[in-house]
Write a structure and sequence with these properties.
Order of helices and strands: HH
Number of strands: 0
Largest sheet: none
Helix content: over 70%
Number of domains: 1
Radius of gyration: 66 Å
Distance between the termini: 174 Å
Strand content: under 5%
Length: 178
């Protein structure tokens, strides 16, 4: 039955199955397992876990510091925005005030200029009316003398003799009064 051996068995090798499950070596293997586990536990608890804990604490401290810095920057940004908005409101108010003052000043100057022009135009208009009245009076005087001469010449041509100047003047006065 040597040919029926398991294909994993090597000639001259151990027989009887998997060594951890063998009854005669089980107690010693259990003893060494407990010792290895205890050493591993001590090594991890004394060396590895403090290092991991310090790394986690450092990260936590860095994150807390970064969050505090971010909050501080956020509050300073909000203060800067509030200051900017306040400055913007003040600037708009000043611009509105300057615009109103400039508009009022220009309106006052325009009104003053308009009044001065009105006065100049009224003076020129009064002078023009005087000139027109004088010209009209002069023209009427000339018209009267021209009309008297023309009337005298027409009557002289029609009747053959020149009329008296007083008769022509009285006839013109009665016609002009109508």
């Amino acid at each position: 039955m040597a040919a029926e051996k398991a294909h994993t068995e090597v000639p001259g090798g151990h027989g009887g199955g998997f060594p951890p499950f063998q009854k005669d070596t089980f107690a010693s293997q259990l003893f060494w397992l407990v010792i290895a586990f205890a050493l591993l536990y001590v090594l991890i608890s004394k060396v590895a876990l403090p290092r991991v804990g310090s790394i986690i604490d450092a990260r936590r401290a860095r994150i807390d510091g970064d969050l505090a810095a971010a909050n501080q920057l956020k509050s300073s940004t909000e203060e800067a925005m509030a200051s900017y908005e306040k400055s913007l409101v003040e600037a708009r108010s000043r611009a509105q005030t300057i615009g109103n003052e400039t508009r009022d000043r220009l309106n006052a100057e325009a009104e003053k200029s308009r009044k001065a022009l009105d006065e100049q135009l009224n003076v020129k208009l009064a002078e023009a009316e005087k000139t027109i009245a004088a010209t009209k009076t002069a023209a009427m005087t000339n018209v009267r003398s021209i009309a008297a001469d023309a009337t005298g010449a027409i009557v002289a041509r029609l009747i053959g003799t020149a009329p008296a100047e007083s008769a022509v003047a009285s006839a013109l006065d009665s016609v002009l009064k109508r």
